[in-house]
Write a sequence for this structure.
């Protein structure tokens, strides 16, 4: 990165950063970059025509992500009832005895993470962006891209043009902008589908998040509200079809039988739908004056809830590298960002893929290994703390936009 001071950078010609996609990662990137570089123009290109997003997901925000959003002024725009702290993470295995717990009190933090519905976070990010210097262009998408030595020349769907010193691609897993750039995606399909929904119980949840591993995949309950959990249940396609075909009482009974009574008695279940699972990553994250971040760059299995948190760390690292540079699209700047992000990407891929392989089968040897591993986590505090640090999002770069 350039040794240029911020005062010197502020005296240079204004640069333009275009962000393709105004979802959770794109909106946060626009807000963070506009705060870090008020001397630059940050343009958020949003294909939605002003209709509020209704993202159905429930997010498990790592503590690191929550703190970053808090520093950006986003969390203060939420109601306290919109998010629920995670004080304890309880991990267990259906194939035999063995469990482990990670506690916020043990780690000396207010919470290991927070749970909130994505629609609330999207609304708060929108309010923060609207109150900032971000130029938010709604109802437009990129139609074509022409590269010049100094810019990415974007032709937009409203027939206008935009010269971007840097193009940040954040338009999701199916990214049309990534396709325009000719960047291919590598996919690893899992023999699983995931069911998303909510479970209401007969007692307060105690701010405990549960991860229960079965022979067909993980089953997670995330505290959400007072007596409600967000549910993510992974299983093989045949089993998932059977679960979706059950009536409400039958599904509630199946969920209770699979999970046991550790979270209380299940009294109501809501199924939002099911979807196939895969891990995807772009074959390159950089192009001429362009960087891919968030789901446009990587999409993960939901085990351990790493997806959005990885996108937040993308934003923080990008801000770190652009904070004092003169040219945001310079290849040296983008290469430095890419090199910094690779260890985090590789570590998260290995971690999530390893969990899926180890905890999604009924082989006797692996089952015994799982129980041994859970016992080790329970018996050796140093191992539990290492896993807790990963769950909280630490261990990667510690970068804010100051």
């Amino acid at each position: 990165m350039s040794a240029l001071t911020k005062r010197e950078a502020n005296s240079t010609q204004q640069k333009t950063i275009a962000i393709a996609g105004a979802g959770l990662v794109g909106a946060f990137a626009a807000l963070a970059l506009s705060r870090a570089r008020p001397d630059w123009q940050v343009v958020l290109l949003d294909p939605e025509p002003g209709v509020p997003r209704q993202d159905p997901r429930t997010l498990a925000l790592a503590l690191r992500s929550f703190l970053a959003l808090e520093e950006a002024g986003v969390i203060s725009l939420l109601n306290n009832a919109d998010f629920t702290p995670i004080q304890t993470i309880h991990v267990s295995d259906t194939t035999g005895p063995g469990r482990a717990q990670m506690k916020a009190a043990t780690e000396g933090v207010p919470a290991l993470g927070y749970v909130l519905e994505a629609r609330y976070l999207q609304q708060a990010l929108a309010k923060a962006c609207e109150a900032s210097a971000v130029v938010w262009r709604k109802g437009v998408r990129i139609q074509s891209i022409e590269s010049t030595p100094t810019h990415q020349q974007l032709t937009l769907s409203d027939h206008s043009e935009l010269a971007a010193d840097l193009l940040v691609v954040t338009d999701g897993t199916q990214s049309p902008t990534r396709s325009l750039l000719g960047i291919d995606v590598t996919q690893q399909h899992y023999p699983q589908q995931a069911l998303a929904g909510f479970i209401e119980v007969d007692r307060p949840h105690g701010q405990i998040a549960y991860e229960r591993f079965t022979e067909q995949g993980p089953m997670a309950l995330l505290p959400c509200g007072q007596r409600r959990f967000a549910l993510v249940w992974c299983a093989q396609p045949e089993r998932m079809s059977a679960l979706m075909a059950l009536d409400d009482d039958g599904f509630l009974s199946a969920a209770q039988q699979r999970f046991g009574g550790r979270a209380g008695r299940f009294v109501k279940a809501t199924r939002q739908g099911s979807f196939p699972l895969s891990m995807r990553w772009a074959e390159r994250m950089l192009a001429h004056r362009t960087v891919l971040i968030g789901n446009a760059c990587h999409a993960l299995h939901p085990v351990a809830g790493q997806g959005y948190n990885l996108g937040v760390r993308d934003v923080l690292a990008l801000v770190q590298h652009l904070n004092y540079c003169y040219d945001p699209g310079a290849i040296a700047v983008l290469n430095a960002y890419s090199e910094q992000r690779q260890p985090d990407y590789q570590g998260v891929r290995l971690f999530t893929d390893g969990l899926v392989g180890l905890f999604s089968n009924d082989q006797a040897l692996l089952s015994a290994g799982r129980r041994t591993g859970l016992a080790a986590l329970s018996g050796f505090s140093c191992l539990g703390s290492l896993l807790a640090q990963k769950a909280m999002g630490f261990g990667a770069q510690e970068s804010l936009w100051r």
In short: The two ends are 16 Å apart (CA to CA).
